[in-house]
Fold Acetyl-coenzyme A synthetase.
Amino acid sequence: MLNAVQRLDTARETNCTPEMYEQLYRRSVEDPDGFWLEQAKRLEWVTPPTKGGDWSYDPVGIEWFADGTLNLCHNAVDRHVEAGRGDATALIFEPDDPATPGRSLTYAELRGEVVRMANALKAIGVKRGDRVTIYMPMIVEGVLAMLACARLGAIHSVVFGGFSPEALAGRIEGCASRFVVTADEGLRGSKRVPLKANVDAALAEPDHDTPIDGMLVVRHTGTEVTMTEGRDHWYHELASDEECPCEPMGAEDPLFILYTSGSTGKPKGVVHTTGGYGVWTATTFSYVFDYRPGEVFWCTADIGWITGHSYIAYGPLLNGATQVVFEGVPNYPDHGRFWDVVDKHQVNFLYTAPTAIRALMREGDAFVTSRNRSSLRLLGTVGEPINPEAWRWYFDVVGEKRCPIVDTWWQTETGGVMITTLPNAHDMKPGSAGKPFFGIRPQLVDNDGAVLEGATEGNLCITHSWPGQARTVYGDHERFEQTYFSTYKGKYFTGDGCKRDEDGYYWITGRVDDVINVSGHRMGTAEVESALVSHAKVSEAAVVGYPHDIKGQGIYCYVTLNAGEEGSDALYAELRGHVRKEIGPIASPDHIQFTDGLPKTRSGKIMRRILRKIAENDYGSLGDTSTLADPSLVDRLIEGRQNR
Ligand code: 6R9
């Protein structure tokens, strides 16, 4: 099975043949500046750039197209209207409940709506350079808020609507954001998410000090919410149609901040800039999906994640594409919802996560085969490794063996797709992301940093910069340098393990650091640990990932309690609830094991390797436990695991 090659019987004419890929890739690494200045012409610049990349990984400083100026909202919206494509459909909104009416906006209408949102932002005082926190459901106004920030030159920081008030507060504070855009409530699988109430709770957090100058609230479900006089405003009351020109921005001016988890500490505010990110998302969207005018694209991600930024808000719109914006979930009203949406809107491209594919696969083929999917032309996955069984089901059942699959590996920090096959240019191998995108130079190194050649396995680094690369961590450049460029000096370290086969295909094996990937959501084990120890009864906690059939990885927690406390079912439930409250439902522990101690070295370091093996029920290969301060603990941990 491994390394099996999947070819398509019916390859259609493509924008990139195998020969073109080879030729373009070679050019992109031999003459990156020439190549990327050429690609930069996909965008309309106020001042076209004459400079390509100017970067160093030691010390770390990265610039692309530095002397160019442009506005990405203009490129995503106005430009298409000015070019006479105002009647083309931009967004098709599919609400959570299929019985409620949806909405569809042409590019001309989108322009009108973005202007209204930008004017409302202006009315609450937003100016160029301000940070605006967007905490929204998956509705059109979420995308509008992002584009409206870009129009004004404000920096958006979108926080996933599933995050708790505590997590939201940390992200508002982290970038001293004085403005918030939210909605009364969100809807997900008929459940209501109290977004406005969560913002109020976040702002009431004790460690929140940044004063909020203004909040826009979008009326979505119509539920009653508390509005604070002078601070909170209904969006529809401030929206207006006055002219609102696009602010010309320097290519290196920040476009957005997006918080993401790492192996240590609090989530980092990764910063992406205007020109490089714009060129990167426009170029990758065009090649990876081979999109043609009139086709319908659907990325099921939330705008709270990088995938929703790059392949909902920016990539498709920069290409003038038509796309579906979906508020709902794959299993509501039933497990056929994705395929209902595909048929209803004649979707040609479906871009989703392996966890969704595995969850739907488990429900059987009938939900799929009972729906017409003849419009589908290409399938994509992102977020975590896809196991070959799920890949096969996606290919055989969903795509009826007609649709190429692109398994796209990338990260919040990379801005857009980095490793993938290109449709029809490459054979596919189920489970392998494929080949590097143009300009990307992957390198595998061993733990000491020695470069590994040929077919091998190691830690995945990227040796040269690309336009879509994150430039810094907001307010903490040293942390940026430390996190990504210090493990292997002079290289960008991805945190992923990876194999390369004899055909030069890359197979991502998952994170090699203390980051876990639960249903495609990235989480630091340290974040879950600090949530657990913030509970009054908990003394210490260690959290590891373990293989989970649907989620990819599950969250396994080892917890020691304060003296006098006793583990019980009630406390188990209380701790789960506590973590959900501190971080959000995506961080719900799958297992909590109470233990009288954690395996530590004599110097006090927790031996996570052992905890991982025990969580995986793999006791045969615990490795050397002789350096443990208390070796007998291992047997007690195993016994505790078996009783779970
Ligand atoms: C886009 C996104 C990044 C981490 C990354 C890796 C995992 C993403 C993958 C994949 C295997 C793929 N990952 N795509 N692993 N195959 N096609 O997901 O960004 O949320 O920052 O997560 O996700 O481990 O390092 P982000």
In short: DSSP finds 19 helices and 33 strands in the chain. Residues 260, 305-307, 382-385, 407-412, 433, 494-496, 508, 510-511, 517, 522 surround 6R9 (CB under 6 Å).
